[in-house]
Amino acid sequence: MPTANSINRRAFLKLSGFTGAALTIGFYFPALAEEGVAIVTAETADTLGIALNAFISIDKTGKVSILNHRSEMGQGSFQAVPQMIAEELEVSLDQVSISFAPGHQNKYGSQITGGSSTVRGAYKHLLRTGATAREMLVEAAAKKWNVPATECYAKNGEVIHRPSSKKLGYGELVEEASKITPPKNVPLKERKDYTIIGQPLPRQDTPLKVNGKAEFGIDKKLPGLLYAVVERSPHFLGKIKSYDDSAVKAMPGVKYVIKVQMPVFDTTREGIAIIADNTWAAMQARKALKVEWDTSGFEHLDTTGLYNRMKEDLKKPGLSQRTGGNFEAAYGKAAKKLEAVYETPYEAHACMEPLNCTAYVQNDKCEIWGPIQGPDWIQRDLADRLNMPIDNITVHMTFLGGGFGRKAFTDYTAEAALISKEIKAPVQVVWTREDDMTQGPFRPGAVYECKAGLNNGRITAYQTKMAAQNMDHQWPHADKTSFNNSTTEGLAEAFINGIDHYSFCDVPTESPVPVMWWRSVYSSTNGFAYESFMDELAVAAEKDPLDFRRQHLREERYGALIDMLEEKTGWKSRGKSSGWGVAITECFKSVVGEAVKVSRNAAGRLTIDRIVAVMDCGWYVNPDIIKAQVEGSIVMALGAATIHETHFTDGKAVETNFHQYQMPRINDVPEIEVYIMENEEKPGGVGEPGLPPFAPALCNAIFDLTGKRIRKLPFNMNEI
């Protein structure tokens, strides 16, 4: 079973008894290694001063322990990683436990859980580590029996001698195996031989989350722990003019009231922290705090002003990310020309678990506990901010109640550390739902201008210009003349390769609103514009929407996905104007096609009848995890397309809680059918790619049924 504990490298090695009581191996990236990754025992690593990226340890009882370098926020790493290890190690999952590694990029490589990268970034190394440990155990058994290793094989945590059927459990072999030099280039299984990978095995972290044993950030307790909430300006760049804390200090449980600064990209957010001996006391005291804010010296934009600015920005020359051929010349000669403008909204992350962080700064060291997506980023940030050696900063991961990119940021952890340093005590900083919803950063809203020319029913010229805030332009010393690297994100690579004349560019819109990654990042907005426009082009070309896409996605992988989508939807047998829409996007190396069926109910209201998704993520681990992630992505996309958005008035976020920022309900979502492609492609992402195609597929379905083209999100289903 997985655990919620986070332990450091030395403690892990000590617990695993690497000096002979256990077999502990892991991988690392040598600076000059030609093969890119090396696998060694923990004893060798410790002797050489090498930091391993991940560990597998097998003790004398045969129990397998894994140190996982990525977070678990619902995406399934606590199931996928053990499933990969167990497959090649030849053990059952009930023999495997998993713990979080602390943050340290030099030791564990990139630990950011984002970009749907956990499996696709390390799958080969994890498989090789498991297979190498297995072969070391086989060799140890062969030595004990004095037989050739080729006569032995591993299964169910045992090594078996094929001619005699003699068996030795892994626990009996670990001491001898730990003395063996790990073999190089151990062959991995073929997919047809898998017995664990590819199976819809139940997630092992689910019981912990049901019975309350899973430790989330807010569950962390320390001796002498104090609790804090922070009153921050509702204007993103507001400063403290004055404050009166006399009533606050007189309230029971209150220990301190201090000014605090929180870094947000290249700006600083000022606030007043109320620290008490419990969260409730701090929250009640906050209500008695009187603050006067200085809101001068910066823009107080509202939503209308933001979008008017983006539309004006579209008239400016764009920063070109990618061009091919000569768009203007080809567009001028096109037999048919089409132009359209699309708008997508700002969105809050709205994780079910609001932000929180526990910090303890003591002299020259700092420890952090919390729901964290990027522990290595936070470690580096705090080392710089506190002027401490990086090894003196320990970042412990807990389970996350959702992340969606928000919990990869370093603002909330820095704030907690600075408060702890000031009061010289451990502190848990808790954000209320209102803090979480109004302070940002948000998914950036965007406006897209799309143009294309058609000849003989085929696209010959294609251009997209995006006006939106560039997330990269917010960092200190950012080059604001740089183009947005994500302008083509979400668009199938095969489509770009098949067009002779194209142009993708952006105009970075300036605004004081902080923006950042949101599930599938720019793909979530790009996908709506690109695949809605693709549908408009199919109509202009008088082509079936799926046939039109097949014509422009002329690679075998995309054709196979379209075939699957046609088969599962019964696309060829659908009636004319029957309310079907489709979209295909590519995101984090996975291709997803989604089809939506809509109709009007007896009351004349638009309803979603059916959602069909086909995921091509290449090599994969657990189909149930994939289905759950696609379903969650679609529900999140449905909310962003038809229900919620973040508005701004006088430079402040309007929506403060779920009474305004409403979520889709069970009765809003029909059963979602998810199908997974089987192929030999490298693994792609799973947690995010299911989101981008839903909104355009839904809007294309509405056009098919009603003839009304939706180019602005969100829209009200009851008003169509």
From TrEMBL:
SMART domains: Ald_Xan_dh_C. Residues 211-297 form the Aldehyde oxidase/xanthine dehydrogenase a/b hammerhead domain. It holds the Pfam family MoCoBD_1. Coiled coil: none annotated. InterPro entries: Ald_Oxase/Xan_DH_a/b, AldOxase/xan_DH_MoCoBD1, AldOxase/xan_DH_MoCoBD2, AldOxase/xan_DH_Mopterin-bd_sf, N-heterocyclic_Hydroxylase, OxRdtase_Mopterin-bd_su_IorB, TAT_signal, TAT_signal_bac_arc. Keywords: Membrane, Transmembrane, Transmembrane helix. The chain crosses the membrane at residues 12-31. GO terms for molecular function: oxidoreductase activity. PROSITE patterns: TAT (PS51318). This is Xanthine dehydrogenase.
